[in-house]
Specification:
Blueprint (H helix, E strand, L loop, with lengths): L3 H10 L23 E6 L11 H10 L2 E6 L6 H6 L5 H15 L3 E4 L15 E2 L2 E3 L3 E4 L5 E4 L7 H5 L1 H27 L7 H8 L1 H20 L4 E4 L6 E5 L2 E5 L8 E5 L5 E6 L8 E7 L9
Parallel strand pairs: 1-2, 2-3, 3-5, 7-8, 8-10
Antiparallel strand pairs: 1-11, 4-5, 6-7, 9-10, 11-12, 12-13
Helix pairs in contact: 2-4
Length: about 300
């Protein structure tokens, strides 16, 4: 059921063209200055929280036009907004950038996740030329079928013990707050950004087992449905690899990792990490899969 809060958040997201921030893009919006991709997949922005790296995402979107843009869930963090409203101008600028991108001819597809589950009430509708769907199937330039989902349906904690998921979310937000303070100190000493939460997740065996179980479960369901690959988010761990003959792709997040999955014109998939504000110097390439390395059709 759509609550009054859900309707409020929806109005913030699906606002009319011309809202503040509409004309804030610089000359970098000239596509001739950009690295164009056939498709871009991003998820776990968590707009409405202090952890969302809005300026970095704006720079990334300005530097990388695309024919398709998939928003793979947790775009808005309704869980945190219910506790405390946080919506600075930079977050509104991102919304307007996405709306403007859709108006300029890019196909923008929004697959809601668990943190923005309010948007699932709008599945099957279009807002500002943005499609809202429960899941999607993307066909790459080389003919592979990729199942596009957020991934929370494969999370037993979210599905069976939602109260525990809320507790974990609060702990994660606390870790991110510590992380921001820690990195301010590191910056004063000229040290690079370091993720405390990622470090903890890699050190805790149960967390690693959870991630592995999640990845395998998603890949198996994709194969059962007849797809050659899957693109998801949810666990904030960017990855691209083969799992039992299925191409598993997780596009990461824009709270810590600032990663995106991109498709080139030839169908090659690549995971990239955005580090700056210029197309050439701002990208670290984390991994790629070409048609030659792709899994066989199911």
């Amino acid at each position: 059921m759509l609550t009054r809060f859900d309707a409020l958040v929806a109005r913030s997201w699906f606002s009319a063209p011309g809202a503040p921030g509409e004309g804030s893009d610089s000359a970098l919006d000239d596509d001739a200055l950009r690295q164009r991709y056939r498709s871009i997949f991003i998820s776990d922005l968590h707009m409405g929280t202090p952890g969302f790296q809005a300026e970095a995402l704006l720079d990334f979107l300005r530097a990388h036009p695309s024919d398709n843009l998939y928003l793979v869930g947790d775009v808005i963090d309704g869980w945190q907004l219910r506790r405390k409203w946080f919506w600075p101008q930079a977050h509104n600028d991102v919304v307007q950038k996405l709306l403007r991108r859709a108006r300029k001819g890019c196909r923008v597809v929004y697959v809601p996740g668990n943190h923005d589950e309010f948007a699932r009430a709008f599945i099957g509708h279009r807002f500002g030329d943005i499609e809202v769907v429960e899941e999607a199937v993307h066909v790459t330039a080389d003919g592979r079928r990729l199942w596009v989902i957020h991934g929370d349906y494969f999370d037993a904690v979210v599905q069976c013990a939602k109260w525990l998921a809320y507790v974990g979310d609060n702990l994660y937000e606390f870790t991110l707050k510590l992380n921001r303070h820690l990195n301010r100190v590191r910056a004063r000493f000229g040290l690079p950004y370091w993720s405390l939460s990622s470090y903890l997740k890699h050190k805790v065996k149960s967390a690693l087992n959870y991630v592995t179980d999640f990845e395998v479960a998603v890949a198996r369901e994709a194969r059962r449905r007849g797809h050659q690959g899957v693109v998801c988010g949810h666990i904030h761990r960017a990855e691209i690899r083969d799992i039992d003959g299925v191409l598993y792709c997780n596009d990461g997040d824009w709270v810590e990792s600032r990663t995106a999955l991109v498709e080139h014109d030839d169908g090659r998939l690549e995971l990239i990490h955005w580090t700056g504000s210029t197309a050439g110097a701002g990208v670290v390439r984390l991994g790629a899969r070409s048609a030659a390395a792709a899994v066989a059709s199911a």
